[in-house]
Amino acid sequence: MVSLKAIQLGNSFSCQICVIGFLSGVCLTSFFLAAITSFASFQISPNSNSTSYFLNAFTGQECESRPEAVERMVISHNLVDVQVNNQVNSIYSAWSTMLNKSHTSEDMFSQNTITDGSKVPRPPHLDNCKATNEVNQILDKRAEDGKLPPWTMWKGFLNNYPLSTKDEQQGYNGHQPISKGAYPPWIKGSDEENYPLTRKAQHDIWVHQHPVNCRDPNVTFLVADWERIPGFGMGAQFAGMAGLLALAINENRVLVTNYYNRADHDGCKGASRSSWSCYFFPETSQECRERAFELMNEKGALERGVITVKENYTTKQIWTGSVPRLWGSPWSYMQPTTEVNGTLIGYHRRMDWRWWRAQALRYLMRFQTEYTCGLLNVARHAAFGWEAAKLVQSLSISEYLEENAKDSRSAIEEYVWSNHEPWTPRPLLSVHVRMGDKACEMKVVEFEEYMRLANRIRHRFPNLKRIWLSTEMQEVIDKTNLYTNWKFYYSNVRRQVGNKTMAVYEASLGRETSTNYPLVNFLMATEADFFIGALGSTWCFLIDGMRNTGGKVMAGYLSVNKDRFW
């Protein structure tokens, strides 16, 4: 109609030709944009209703299609919206480039980070692994005089805050370590938000594992490899080492871990290869490790009992032996926060081991290494990077330029805000679905039951809409398309089809991937706001323990079954 009217108004043939050409161009342009929109919409969304976020965080590379897979988007005909999306994509791509160069992302936290000639905002969803590691190294080592580390009331980077001369002259002792009543900084929350006596137990385990003088003749050791029995998963290895730590404490020995087969890959460099220290801080000091291995080579040390090894103990002692009683029986008054089949579990016959394994694993995982921190950075970026870029982009250009014009960060940003954890879209529910060969050990439950429980939580907390999903089964991933009112995040890794054994499945992935991807899922589950799993799975059992020593007792735990040993 517009074209016809325009032609009628034209007084000359040349004018009519121009009008027809112009309007034809408009039509072709509109058609072209519509085609791109449809194509992008098809490419970006695996289905038209639900959103799934993929992450490939475990081989050090991100999926090439990551920007399209992040979120279902439709290219808008509004030029302003198109520009916004381009800006978000530019920020996300710049972060990706820097993260591929260094997973620990220290370059991203330097002032006025520049890539391709442009300033790049700091990524709120990533951790400054190098700086965090430096602080934790100080917090995990005794002072030169043998006193405890600087576990003051000052947190993290605040311990590095330079006091002025006036502050010191006036007797301000903010940096003074507090020996009496000090608790380790890796425990979050109050006593009521953790298992009973968690902070006290963590303090005492650290002191036990870090004697003042490792060469004191009265200091004895228990040296043990991590379990390598075929078919043993990572959860079983963690549980086995918890038993050995209990034996060491009961016999007043320092536990020293040796060969860790899951760290025997190219991702673990140098001395950390084949060692627990590739992923987490060592279980004891370097001095004690050196002394223990000296004694291993010393003739008669084993006979004198100065040192023992795993073979000195029976399977029963390791797996179901006595829990340390240094703290009485704190498990006898654990809060009933686990629900199975609609009933809160107040008591069961393995409460002592539930408490102890949580304490042991919390201690062994107290501080992550730069390598593990880097793995988590890649996972967070793949999952949350696009949303983080949108948040950063939402700042006005003037605000951003004004902030980045400063020569350095302010003191509150450097020492206070830097202690906050990386940004995560919350609330976040973690769901671990264990199926496959686990049917020989526990009652296997279909994904629908897990989602029924997820909806129960959502009815109480209606702002919950995100799920971090971990599973080894492809059929579970396929079923996420049925739940269009949830956003799912999951690792982009090859999964099981059928009922292969876990050992065969892990072998098909390779040592590095089969270790890194479940470990990242494990740690993300411990940080989520809510958790749904199966207590019959050792993996879920241990996730629950880490959450209950990480300030999340009152988040509760919905399980699809009972632990098989209760």
From TrEMBL:
Protein species of origin: Tagetes erecta
TM spans (from-to): 12-40
Listed GO biological process terms: protein N-linked glycosylation
Taxonomic superkingdom: Eukaryota
Lineage of producing organism: Eukaryota, Viridiplantae, Streptophyta, Embryophyta, Tracheophyta
UniProt xrefs under Gene3D superfamilies: 3.40.50.11350
Claim: Nucleotide-binding is one of the keywords in the record: no
Keywords assigned: Membrane, Transmembrane, Transmembrane helix
One GO MF term: alpha-(1->6)-fucosyltransferase activity
Protein name as catalogued: Alpha-(1,6)-fucosyltransferase
